Fold Polymerase nucleotidyl transferase domain-containing protein.
Amino acid sequence: MAILFGRSRGTGDVDILIEPISYGRFFELYGRAEKKDFYFMNSTNLDTIYEMLIKGLAVRVAKKDTVIPNIEIKFVKNEIDRYSLDNRLRVVLGDNHVFISPIELQIAYKLYLGSDKDIDDAVYLWEIFKNHINKNRLYYFMRKMDVEGSKYGIG
């Protein structure tokens, strides 16, 4: 998400969180993706892909004959996912829009991931939004994920 707000960073995927859907609806989604020249990278077996989603795993989708960039699709599987989806933010991009998870949750999650790039993303988002976010909510998520931001200037 930091890229959306101007951070220069290479990425190979875009994460998409969706409500769990029935096998029938997933079959339709799979068919529409194939018609638009996308493929599911995890398997060619529709049952296997759907079972992965049901088990809480992510599946990857990319344009045919490519690997990067790709889309990582996940079903909501826990309270943090639910919060993210229920409290998503709409970002307007010209005549279009995308939904993103709350900034407070993103900062805490990036700290939780812990790689140098993710920490840098968390700091970047903090610097941009520190005067516009709910700090109590940020601290809640940081406690929930057992991370600290103070050593990075967050908080």
